[in-house]
Design goal:
Elements lengths: L2 H14 L18 H13 L1 H9 L10 E6 L2 E6 L2 E2 L1 H5 L4 H4 L3 E7 L4 E5 H19 L6 E5 L4 H13 L2 E4 L6 H11 L3 E5 L1 E4 L2 E4 H9 L7 E5 L11 E3 H6 L10 E2 L5 E5 L7 E5 L2 H14 L7 E4 L6 H13 L3 E6 L9 H9 L3 E4 L1 H10 L2 H4 L8 E5 L5 H11 L6 E4 L33 E4 L12 E5 L9 E2 L3 H9 L6 E9 L5 E6 L3 E4 L2 E4 H9 L4 E11 L3 E10 L8 H15 L8 E5 L12 H8 L19 E3 L1
Parallel strand pairs: 4-17, 6-7, 6-8, 7-14, 8-11, 11-12, 16-17, 16-18, 18-19, 19-20, 29-30
Antiparallel strand pairs: 1-2, 3-13, 4-5, 9-10, 14-15, 15-23, 21-22, 22-24, 24-25, 26-27, 28-29, 30-31
Helix pairs in contact: 1-16, 2-3, 6-7, 8-9, 11-12, 14-16
The structure holds adenosine-5'-monophosphate-propyl ester.
The site of adenosine-5'-monophosphate-propyl ester has 22 residues, from helix 12, strand 20, strand 24 and strand 25.
Length: 650
């Protein structure tokens, strides 16, 4: 099939049918016998979410059972009080009696090398590291560790070793700059950093230890850097320890300690509406329950599955659906350190055939890039092992959905479009494959136990098809507990806009059948290739450059990336002649240096002044129109200086 035929068949299917009925074999969960029994269970769970979660919690291992399922002192929610649990025990030890030789991970490197780890091997590696952290460094519950690593098994081993000994981990995506790493490490008071000397991507070698060294130089809390040496000639500096030597003499068993259900499992920093990223705090019991239950139901996990989530562990998707949710179900996952289109555009499909992947979970940006590369890269692979496809991170446009369904899934794999956030911990809105009829572009309906709604400015439920704000009406087990060191910002950011409701920051509408259609952020957060960025964060980076007086950043719709980054900058008059071309390059490099390559502006426009209201607020709506090349629309009567939106050069 060539590009042309596939496009026209996609258009025909889209015209003819908007609703896909699920294939019947997708009902592996005992609780879901058929659509009718699922509907009953779902309705019951809306009336009594605690009852639903309590029943599911029975399937985890608890050292001591909880006495109180849920305590709600708005806006603070606590789950399974009195319950004692160890997350790593649930991910590893629990599976050993029945499946110690089953693969937990298949790792593939960009050069095609493969490494596998069974549950027994993973348990042993985690035990050795946990022992070394306790015995040699004296780490204890309540301490914090940073992880800045490429996607290698050791990154997961570090997460599980921390979880096992009650040390909260804070993973920083290894694409962030040393300044971003430093800010996060300082905020979380990390005592140790796990890293590797090198990472590999797109044929390039990334010098991770250099970035870590720059950050650590300004982080007094860090006592040790544990380095996985991939190049044996790498020299170690003061306070750096070689990973393999560190664990070599340690026992390969470790007794997991029980922790309070509410014990913090990890912090994960994410962008918000202010300049500084916020440290989302996740719990142990509630978080694990959320990710384990959703992974089991939404990915319809069966014993023989080979599951591949393409996210990096630096993001919440990696935490929940590369590591905790999957291991808790004893599933086999593939992880790949490299770019999915390297060294050729069909690499991802080659890997699927090579390892017989059955479930693929990826982001719409990636799907659009594969689609643009051309069907020929897909159809030369059989992909016959695939049975389920997933999408996450941003709205998926119906065209990309159809292409994913027809060309990748050969029309036989349901697509689970999963809506959630770093804050929600686990998926909140998604189809259940085999149960929920699908509509391309809709994340369909809330998961059982999740009471979602769409409300207007006054907090009243919107009528069908009326646009409004996506909110959650009732706390759920895997929700964030607070913001690290900032409970006020937690309260203000999520619980103050609508009294008693969790505000997601997303706009959406619901159709007559109760299906949710998520539009995207309504705040100053933008979503670039499925990565969340705060416009204020990029603005702060820009104004820290000496030649910048003021900056405003907006998202512009982008066919491939969802949104691209456009910055409006007012240069500071230094008396010197302005060389726009050089300054553009300098500012882009400056943002990369301050935040990381993922925040590099796609376009910088210089203006003599920024459009502001009389009260001094930047009129972003106007800048968004300008950035997308639209005529300036709407009311500009409150504009302080309407004549001055003059672009010096774009
Ligand atoms: O705007 C929504 C979008 O991603 C935001 C959350 O970003 P982050 O915390 O980085 O987590 C991403 C991975 C879970 C949301 O507020 N988003 C996420 N999934 C979807 C989505 N938008 C539409 N459809 C989705 N399936």
């Amino acid at each position: 099939m060539d590009n042309k035929t596939s496009k026209s068949s996609i258009e025909t299917v889209m015209k003819e049918t908007r609703v896909f009925s699920p294939p019947t074999e997708f009902t592996s969960q005992a609780l879901i016998k058929d659509s009718k029994s699922y509907q009953e269970l779902w309705e019951e769970s809306q009336k009594n979410p605690e009852k639903f979660w309590q029943k599911e919690a029975e399937s985890l291992h608890w050292f001591e059972k909880w006495h109180t399922t849920h305590e709600w002192k708005e806006p603070f929610s606590r789950w399974f009080l009195g319950g004692k649990i160890n997350v790593a025990y649930n991910c590893l030890d629990r599976h050993l009696p029945t499946q110690k030789d089953k693969l937990a991970y298949i790792w593939e490197g960009e050069d095609g090398s493969v490494r596998t780890l069974t549950f027994q091997q993973l348990y042993e590696e985690v035990s050795q590291l946990a022992n070394a952290l306790e015995n040699k460094l004296g780490l204890k519950p309540g301490d914090t560790a940073a992880i800045y690593m490429p996607l290698v098994p050791e990154a997961i081993i570090a997460m599980l070793a921390c979880a096992r000994i009650g040390v909260a981990h804070s993973i920083v995506f290894a694409g962030f700059s040393s300044l971003s790493l430093k800010d996060r490490v300082l905020d979380a008071d990390c005592k140790i950093i796990f890293t590797a000397d090198l990472g590999y991507r797109r044929g390039q070698t990334l010098d991770l230890k250099k970035i870590v060294r720059e950050a650590v130089a300004e982080c007094p809390s860090v006592q040790t850097t544990l380095i996985l040496r991939r190049d044996p000639t790498t020299q170690l500096s003061k306070n750096e320890i070689d990973w393999n030597t560190f664990v070599a003499d340690q026992s390969r068993t470790h007794k997991a300690q029980p922790f309070d259900s509410e014990h913090p499992l990890f912090y994960l920093y994410t962008s918000g509406t202010t300049g500084k990223p916020k440290g989302i705090v996740h719990s142990s019991g509630g978080y694990l329950l959320g990710v384990a239950t959703t992974a089991k139901w939404i990915f319809d996990l069966k014993d023989q599955d080979i599951y591949w989530c393409t996210a990096d562990i630096g993001w919440i998707t990696g935490h929940s659906y590369v590591v905790y949710g999957l291991l808790a179900n004893g599933a086999t996952s593939l992880i790949y350190e490299g770019a999915p289109m390297h060294p050729q555009a069909g690499r991802i499909w080659e890997i699927i055939d090579k390892h017989k992947v059955t479930i693929l979970y990826t982001a719409p940006t990636a799907i659009r890039a594969f689609m643009r590369a051309g069907d020929e890269y897909v159809i030369k692979h059989s992909l016959k092992s695939l049975r389920l496809l997933g999408s996450v991170g941003e709205p998926i446009n119906p065209e990309a959905w159809m292409w994913y369904h027809q060309i990748v899934g050969k029309g036989k794999c349901p697509i689970v479009d999963t809506w959630w956030q770093t804050e929600t911990g686990s998926i909140l809105i998604s189809p259940i494959p085999g149960v929920t009829p699908l509509k391309p572009g809709s994340a369909t309906r809330p998961f059982p136990g999740i009471v979602a709604d769409i409300v207007n400015e006054e907090g009243k439920t919107c009528a069908p098809n009326e646009g409004g704000y996506l909110v959650i009406r009732h706390p759920w087990p895997s929700m964030l507990r607070t913001l690290h060191k900032n409970p006020e910002r937690y309260k203000e950011g999520y619980w103050s806009r609508f009294k008693g409701l969790y505000f997601t920051g997303d706009g959406a509408h619901r159709d007559e059948q109760g299906y949710f259609w998520i539009k995207g952020r309504v705040d100053d957060v933008i979503n670039v290739s499925g990565h969340r960025l705060g416009t204020m964060e990029i603005e702060s980076a820009l104004v820290s450059h000496p030649r910048v007086a003021e900056a405003a950043v907006v998202g512009r719709p982008d066919e491939l990336k969802g949104q691209s980054i456009v910055a409006f900058v007012t240069p500071r008059d230094s008396g010197e002649k302005l060389d726009i071309k050089i300054l553009v390059q300098e500012l882009k490099a400056h943002v990369v240096n301050e935040i990381g390559a993922l925040a590099r502006p796609d376009e910088i426009k210089f203006t003599k002044t920024l459009p502001k209201t009389r009260s001094g607020k930047i009129m972003r709506r106007l800048l968004k129109d300008l950035a997308s090349g639209k005529e300036i629309s709407g009311d500009t009567t409150t504009l302080e200086n309407p004549g001055l939106i003059e672009i010096i050069e774009s």
